[in-house]
Amino acid sequence: SVMQVSATDADDDVNTYNAAIAYTILSQDPELPHKNMFTVNRDTGVISVLTSGLDRESYPTYTLVVQAADLQGEGLSTTAKAVITVLDINDNAPIFNPTMYVGQVPENEANAYITTLKVTDNDAPHTPAWEAVYTIVNDPEQQFVITTDPMTNDGILKTAKGLDFEAKQQYILYVTVVNVDPFEGSLAPSTATVTVEVIDVNEAPIFVPPEKVVEVPEDFGVGLEITSYTAREPDTFMEQKITYRIWRDTANWLEINPETGVISTRAEMDREDTEHVKNSTYTALIIATDDGSPIATGTGTLVLILSDVNDNAPIPEPRSMQFCQRNPQPHVINIIDPDLPPNTSPFTAELTHGASVNWTIEYNDPGQESLILKPKKPLGFGEYKINLKLMDNQNKDQVTTLDVLVCDCEGAVHNCMKSGYVEAGLQVPAILGILGGILALLILVLLLLLFLRRRTVVKEPLLPPDDDTRDNVYYYDEEGGGEEDQ
């Protein structure tokens, strides 16, 4: 059934036929494709399709004039209009118009527009029976993608990934189109042919490999060849020349032959250069440039793994410290060596140049990577120079001078004081005493000059006695005339 019409009658419908209503169709507009496309049930008013031939695309609506009459159709009557809208079904396939297309796209560009495919569909616009679904039949590598414009129903063809002109210059694609809704009946999908031409562009040189790792000793030397790092030209249809240069070489250790790509050292390398070397690795960036139009540039990464050599002797830290004269607390000295095992611990320590007379050292840990320094006996106030010789596991050694201050205090040092001095400098009374001594000396010199001018006989110069010398505040723990290494 399509619809139902209904009429009412106020007469008695129980004992008479005065309210017995019968329905009939008086007219149909349009009378196509047949005059009697619909029928109505006389008793119920239900309207049904009588014959086939409804076509929304040709006759989207029908207007029926329906009569209702009492006395079972023989009495009084009235009429009404019934408007029937024919609903769409997917009985029209989308058709390509035209069926042949040509598009161009530069190589290496993903999501690049190629062309627009157009279709016509007689079904109701913007319905599932009208909306187009495009399929590329022969694209196994999925290099292309086609989407539907929701407003126009056109197919927009683009690249899904960059195409390589050197590998293939032309593609011929076959595209079919259907609707979101399945076809009604035996409808065949329409097919279009798209020719895609790939345009050659100048591509950047490609380093092989993109990252090259080379292991060299840190004392490799200067002016020696490390490796050859070159790039290939992907544009096989073009004759181009590649030149090389170093883009990033933060320590300025390297140089490259611009023609051959041979990389050599221009300065001494140092694995312990923590500013430029991380985890024994030094990284440089190399650039290859062709002479195409426009010029294209590729980048490669050179990774140098610097193997360690024993070029650093161990050193103590800290190198200056303070002790109290009474009940002094020992100091821990760490041994630092930037080299790698086996060029580091266990270390050997020795006091030299007579330092062992007043001082003693002992290892602070089983790995012999730190020491404990303490005085052997009570020492006088002042500054001491202690020569400490440290040697690594491969017998690389160095003598370092420690600056030690013995202070007027007990136990741990809190405020270091020594006779006539403080850690920051001379005390005020000492400074005043020195200034007073200088002034007295000047007065003495003036008096002497005046005295000499008044006498004709030269007298013995007035000099301080030999034993009137000041104590020196420095103590050098040395015996004999040795040579001190720094």
TrEMBL record:
Gene3D superfamilies assigned to the protein according to its UniProt record, in alphabetical order: Cadherins
Domain Cadherin residues, every copy: 2-96, 97-207, 208-316
N-terminal signal peptide: none
Gene Ontology MF terms in the entry: beta-catenin binding; cadherin binding; calcium ion binding
Subcellular location: Cell junction, Desmosome; Cell membrane
Record Pfam families: Cadherin
SMART domains the UniProt entry points to: CA
GO CC entries: adherens junction; apical junction complex; catenin complex; cytoplasm; desmosome; flotillin complex
Membrane topology classification: Single-pass type I membrane protein
Residue spans crossing the bilayer: 430-452
Keyword Plastid in record: no
InterPro entries: Cadherin (IPR039808), Cadherin-like_dom (IPR002126), Cadherin-like_sf (IPR015919), Cadherin_CS (IPR020894)
Keywords annotated in UniProt: Calcium, Cell adhesion, Cell membrane, Cleavage on pair of basic residues, Glycoprotein, Membrane, Metal-binding, Repeat, Transmembrane, Transmembrane helix
Name of this protein: E-cadherin
CDD domains: Cadherin_repeat
Gene Ontology biological process terms, A to Z: adherens junction organization; calcium-dependent cell-cell adhesion via plasma membrane cell adhesion molecules; cell migration; cell morphogenesis; cell-cell adhesion mediated by cadherin; cell-cell junction assembly; homophilic cell adhesion via plasma membrane adhesion molecules; synapse assembly
